[in-house]
Structures
1.
Amino acid sequence: MESRIERIKKQLHSASYKLTPQREATVRVLLEHEEDHLSAEDVYLLVKEKAPEIGLATVYRTLELLNELKVVDKINFGDGVSRYDLRQEGAAHFHHHLVCIECGAVDEIQEDLLEDVEKVVERDWKFQVKDHRLTFHGICWRCQEKNGTEETKEESLEKQHVE
Amino acid sequence: MESRIERIKKQLHSASYKLTPQREATVRVLLEHEEDHLSAEDVYLLVKEKAPEIGLATVYRTLELLNELKVVDKINFGDGVSRYDLRQEGAAHFHHHLVCIECGAVDEIQEDLLEDVEKVVERDWKFQVKDHRLTFHGICWRCQEKNGTEETKEESLEKQHVE
DNA sequence: ATTGTAATGATTTTATTTTGCAACTTCCTC
DNA sequence: GAGGAAGTTGCAAAATAAAATCATTACAAT
């Protein structure tokens, strides 16, 4: 965790930006919620708990900056808001998402499934792929179980998703 | 064209909605600009040419309705606006997009490239895929040619991208 | 210490999208 | 046809997200 912040700090420096306390607090929130897909507003509220004096504009600026540096990716699941998702360190491409249309859960796939598809696109469409966005919409394994069987205690204990 | 409107009309009716003149005008605009990726505002301005009395709110409501019926898909390429894209008739899945980071052009891929990937997702993640969104970001063939004529390949590979 | 530059926070502005509501059509039933 | 419910419309207002503005502050390099 600390070392990751160190590396992000270096990334900022090499683009001649500074890791200010506000920016560090923002990055920490992102690291601590790596599984989630926070909106700018979400990040703002969480950062505010640690650094109450921070302004929303700074959060927006920081997120935009991190986006430029490819530390985070800005995504959009169709609701109006942009969400910010940490990139895996060293990942050449953005990871994929599974959005459950029943419970709203968003799971991530870090594996790159598109190597072959990208080759086809480069060859057949002469399109030089730099990055991609792939999201599947469907039913997650939790909802499939929930629907298929009567719910057991263990299953309901595992349930943690809110809309 | 007329028959397509007829079929959309039937789709509306079967969900107990009506194809009002305003809705028909909106659908016609979408059909006439199938290649483009119009924003709600774009659609509004185009519909207004045929039916000047239409209100922007109606266009929004119509597009939302068509989205629910899976006649159009609402997409978002990262700029703030939602765009509305006609689905191919009978297409089980949404088509893909190639967004050029140099000239901003958006091309479509109707072919379904994801069959294999979806199988993997269903098997390995137990995720029942209903739909997908796939967008590639990169350099379109036009920009590659344009770059190639004025500079060597190495130069164009080195070129940095700003804003 | 002084200066120049970058960064910040509060506020305002812009843009997009949604909602509330009264008026207006449709399409039934009588 | 008259009456009525339901769906639809246009306008205006409101809600929302994001970006821009700007005076103030922090900080590194003199």
2.
Amino acid sequence: MNNEQNKIPQATAKRLPLYYRFINNLHHQGKLRVSSKELSEAVKVDSATIRRDFSYFGALGKKGYGYNVEYLLSFFRKTLDQDEVTKVALIGVGNLGTAFLHYNFMKNNNTKIEMAFDADPNKLGSDIGGVPVYHVDDLEDHLKNTAVAILTVPSTEAQGITERLVDAGVSGILNFTPARISVPDHIRVHHIDLSVELQSLVYFLKHYPLEEEAGD
Amino acid sequence: MNNEQNKIPQATAKRLPLYYRFINNLHHQGKLRVSSKELSEAVKVDSATIRRDFSYFGALGKKGYGYNVEYLLSFFRKTLDQDEVTKVALIGVGNLGTAFLHYNFMKNNNTKIEMAFDADPNKLGSDIGGVPVYHVDDLEDHLKNTAVAILTVPSTEAQGITERLVDAGVSGILNFTPARISVPDHIRVHHIDLSVELQSLVYFLKHYPLEEEAGD
DNA sequence: AATAAGTCGTGATTTTATTCACATTCTTTT
DNA sequence: AAAAGAATGTGAATAAAATCACGACTTATT
Ligand SMILES: NC(=O)c1ccc[n+]([C@@H]2O[C@H](COP(=O)([O-])OP(=O)(O)OC[C@H]3O[C@@H](n4cnc5c(N)ncnc54)[C@H](O)[C@@H]3O)[C@@H](O)[C@H]2O)c1
Ligand SMILES: NC(=O)c1ccc[n+]([C@@H]2O[C@H](COP(=O)([O-])OP(=O)(O)OC[C@H]3O[C@@H](n4cnc5c(N)ncnc54)[C@H](O)[C@@H]3O)[C@@H](O)[C@H]2O)c1
């Protein structure tokens, strides 16, 4: 599944869902074609970078013309496996977890939170946003064919839950806790560390002031 | 404020809050010294990268010894301006916004959400997590000396609100909406795009399978 | 006091990502 | 049908980040 196109840089791979979303928007707006320059303005990525990114998949566009929106869309849909839904489990139905359950990740997306877990008996039973909430003790019973988990438990619980997830066959974890969890080599973890994001934004503001405008 | 240490790579700057948090943990555990190797295991960053990162600030450690935890901590506290609190406003008290208000970003942090805004009259008045919620019509009246805003409004509102924030003097925006907002050059925007994060995790799982373990 | 073990700081190298710049090709206009 | 304009795809250049690898110094041990 990967060897055919093994050379796609990680930086490119991370931008693909973004491209997909904006191409989708264009399609809904009824646009028939788009240039890398236009797309660049929409997604805020340099147009040369966009052309380079697309070129890893072959020649998707036409010189002098740009890209056909319909074609791009169907190409990216295939590439991002948009027709096949990936099952996701969420662990920790607290502030953040509840927000995710209410949000419909499916709108534009090939993923679906199918079940949630919590340790607090008060959270159980109710379907939050249409997703059933089970007790975390029953994790292993319900987690069948679930490839991805979203971790929104207290950071002290993160490592323990992670180990159970891995044993239960999960192979990707989106970790929102501040803990840096340890996993075997074949498991992929993406950390989204909101405090770090906020702090680093503040650091950049103080230490890397951007050009003041010359007025408009 | 920046010229003294102008050469710190962005990748390094993004890791600083992470280092700070873990050094803080070590301090609370009563550890007196730490090596780049130990720290590496905790934060999951290569030890050479850590030494390189630290070296941009001069010689913080001692050869053959490692780093003094107390010294590192006080150094990073200064560097990250932990003694000075940055005021933050949050716009959009919905699922995600409410979660952030309940979360105490201050725990380990130099930032504080001081006020929130929403367009829905039902959300007003109540202090969520101790933060007052005002009507978005009054944005300009309340936003004094607020450098940073967190955007958790519907994506259709993002650009309009952004323009008002910029006019009101905000210089950094943490954007959780899927919209790619346009800002003048002197404004810094960090995008946290949760759908993209989830989709790209799925993409990596399918296209970049990691080494299977040889068992243990 | 000498030896061994541990660890930093950094020059050099490698890897990854971005950007430039232009020949080529397609579209549109005259 | 020719000329002008638009936009791709990519080799080459540049920039940014990560990693290797080792000399220099510190601490611990015998
Ligand atoms: N809320 C935010 O804005 C925010 C911001 C940054 C980071 N985080 C991090 O995200 C995580 C969740 O934050 P939150 O604000 O939603 O916390 P929360 O306390 O509201 O939610 C945690 C939930 O996990 C459940 N839980 C506890 N132990 C469990 C276990 N062993 N198994 C399953 N469920 C368990 C709790 O019952 C609770 O419902 C935390 O690690 C926090 O540090 C949150
Ligand atoms: N909740 C999630 O898990 C999640 C995940 C990914 C992205 N997002 C994005 O984050 C944003 C917020 O998501 P949410 O789930 O919290 O949505 P939400 O609808 O629950 O909250 C949006 C809030 O903004 C308020 N609002 C609307 N117009 C406003 C305006 N002009 N000024 C001020 N407030 C206004 C609404 O009253 C509402 O309270 C959206 O853009 C969404 O796409 C959310």
